[in-house]
Amino acid sequence: MIKKFIIINGTMGVGKTSICENLHKTLPNSAWLDGDWCWMINPFTVNEENKEMVIKNITYILNNFLMNSSLEYVIFNWVIDSDYIMNLILDNMQTKSFNIYKITLTCSKDELIKRVGLDILEGKREKNSINRSLERLDLYSKMDTLKVDTTFKEITTIVNEIKNIIQ
């Protein structure tokens, strides 16, 4: 059995965590890693040492999932906003025995503002999150990934779209 390695990326607030949490629940023998979990440091500081650390954390866990014989699906989501970062992760996989599915979640700018705005009101995100997310939105259209638009869609609809892609 060849594993299915599903990488789901997109700008902050597009729905990666919600979609992957639900996808993970519907796929038997699956593991899920949210890249944000590998960078839970306070204060959140972006520097070369921390960037190197997070890539090492991510690739260590993904390698363990991909080498586990009981798993059929490995789901990974993160903000990955360039093919360079995507390839940095993929180049560090110790096994190449998997089918890869690179999926970018997108949504309209208005929908993104609404979603991130709600997160800010609920205390889940910082006030400057809307601008940071909007600034990166266009980067994803340039990536070598399949695009799934999440605008005005229910989570179950998006999960089913992804399942149709990987089946």
How many separate structural domains?
A: 1
Q: Within the largest sheet, what's the order of strands?
A: 2-3-1-4-5
Q: Identify the CATH class.
A: Alpha Beta
Average pLDDT taken over every residue:
96
- Amount of beta strand: 15-25%
Order of helices and strands: EHEHEHEHHEH
Question: Total number of β-strand segments?
Answer: 5
In CATH, the homologous superfamily goes by the name P-loop containing nucleotide triphosphate hydrolases
In helices, the fraction of residues equals 40-55%
Shape verdict:
globular
Radius of gyration: 16 Å
CATH architecture: 3-Layer(aba) Sandwich
Residue ranges: pLDDT <50 for 5 or more in a row? none
* Sheet with most strands: 5 strands, parallel
State the end-to-end distance.
14 Å
Quick structural gist:
The chain has one domain: P-loop containing nucleotide triphosphate hydrolases (Rossmann fold, 3-Layer(aba) Sandwich). The longest helix is centred in the middle third of the chain and has 20 residues, at 48-67.
Describe the protein in words:
It is a single chain. By secondary structure, the chain is an alpha/beta fold. The protein has one domain: Rossmann fold (3-Layer(aba) Sandwich). Helix content is 44%, strand content 19%. The chain has a five-stranded parallel sheet with strand order 2-3-1-4-5, with helices on both faces. Helix 4 (109-121) runs antiparallel to helix 5. The chain is globular. The chain starts with a strand and ends with a helix. 29% of the residues are buried. This is AAA domain-containing protein. InterPro entries: P-loop_NTPase (IPR027417). Pfam families: AAA_18 (PF13238).
